[in-house]
Write a structure and sequence with these properties.
Layout: H1 5-15, H2 19-47, E1 53-58, H3 60-63, E2 74-83, H4 94-105, E3 112-117, E4 122-126, E5 130-134, E6 136-139, E7 146-149, E8 153-156, H5 159-170, H6 177-180, H7 185-197, H8 201-214, H9 223-232, H10 240-257, H11 279-298, H12 302-313, H13 330-337
Parallel strand pairs: 2-5, 2-6
Antiparallel strand pairs: 1-2, 3-4, 4-5, 6-7, 7-8
């Protein structure tokens, strides 16, 4: 059995978003926050609001499961919260909030390519090949915010709960207060540094699944679904190649039994596969991935084993580092090779 754990370690460093790009995202996020605060006087007057706005980072950037996509369109989610006491009927509509937030951002800036009004957020697309998504919330209690969805209206949604749910899976010591209470900012910064130094295996498995899905972006589930599937079916092991293979098998088995992916936090129980039209294709690709993973782990020659992984993960998987040598004893080698030389790159 070839051990490709070191190859997966290198693959992780290839697909993981670099520190330089992280810093770039933080800088543009902070610049957008300044622009929104400057424009809030206009927004508040038009919407009849008199309360404060706050910002909360969310999503894969905070959880450090963000990847560098093949096409380069990486992103950060930064929630904009309007704090007020108006009920859903009394406050302006989600479309009104979207309109004025877009107006505050859509005033000429050399680096911004366009500002897009999407159903659940305002997307700021940059010419450099990344974007910032700004979901808009209204809340009188920061623990129970309503998301401004143009198509569905006001929806109870709390993305910080999802971060907390995921971080409990890896037992990282995350607390919601890190984000919701400014007095704990220094502790949040320290926690962020610690989780990146101690790169938990589950974070790596999520990145591997996202990078695999990125190869067929139009057909594959979104990153949120990949994260939930990985977290719910995670198989820990000292080797990433074995952990990934076993996690894939558990995901496939659970979806064969019931093709659902339920949101574990508010709105809890929502089936995120609702409306997904590529079930057959996804299950087929998942089956291929498992088959190649099994063959890779049966193969005693590291270079040949690597080719099986590369069939599923393509050129970014670093087979140029694989050694052309046999691992294991003669009995294991005989079982692994089976008396023939296979060519997985022709699969």
């Amino acid at each position: 059995m070839a051990n490709c754990n070191l190859l997966f370690s290198e693959y992780n460093s290839i697909i993981r978003l670099s520190d330089e790009r992280r810093q770039q995202l933080l800088e543009v996020r902070n610049n957008l926050r300044i622009r929104l605060r400057r424009g809030y006087s206009i927004i508040s007057e038009e919407l009849g609001l008199k309360n404060e706005i706050i910002h909360q980072s969310q999503g894969s950037f905070v959880m450090d499961t963000i990847i560098s996509p093949i096409r380069g369109d990486y992103d950060i989610d930064d929630g904009l919260y309007f704090i007020g006491s108006l009920d859903r009927k009394s406050r302006p509509s989600p479309s009104e909030f979207h309109k004025w937030v877009k107006y505050a951002l859509d005033r000429g800036h050399d680096d911004i390519e366009k500002v897009i009004d999407k159903s659940t957020c305002i997307r700021v697309q940059y010419k450099s090949g990344f974007h910032v998504d700004i979901p808009i919330y209204y809340a009188d209690n920061i623990d129970c915010p309503d998301l401004a969805d143009v198509n569905r209206g006001w929806i109870l949604s709390h993305p910080i709960e999802f971060i907390e749910w995921f971080e409990q899976k890896v037992q990282s010591g995350f607390r919601k207060a890190f984000i919701t209470e400014s007095r704990l900012f220094d502790e949040f910064v320290q926690w962020t540094s610690d989780i990146r130094k101690n790169d938990h295996q589950l974070r790596r498995i999520v990145r591997f699944l996202k990078a695999w899905g990125d190869l067929r972006r139009e057909e594959m589930p979104c990153g949120l679904i990949m994260t939930i599937l990985a977290a719910n079916n995670y198989y820990p092991h000292q080797r990433d190649d074995i952990s990934l293979k076993e996690t894939l098998i558990k995901i496939h088995a659970s979806l064969q039994q019931n093709f659902r992916c339920e949101r574990p936090t508010t709105p809890k129980g929502e089936n995120l596969f609702e409306g997904y039209k590529n079930q057959d294709a996804f299950m087929k690709y998942l089956g291929y991935f498992i088959e190649n993973a099994k063959k890779a782990l049966e193969e005693p020659n590291e270079k040949i084993a690597c080719k099986y992984w590369q069939v599923s993960l393509r050129d970014r998987f670093p087979c140029y580092l694989a050694k052309d040598e046999i691992n294991g004893n003669s009995a294991t080698i005989s079982l692994g090779i089976g008396g023939s030389i296979r060519k997985p790159w022709c699969y």
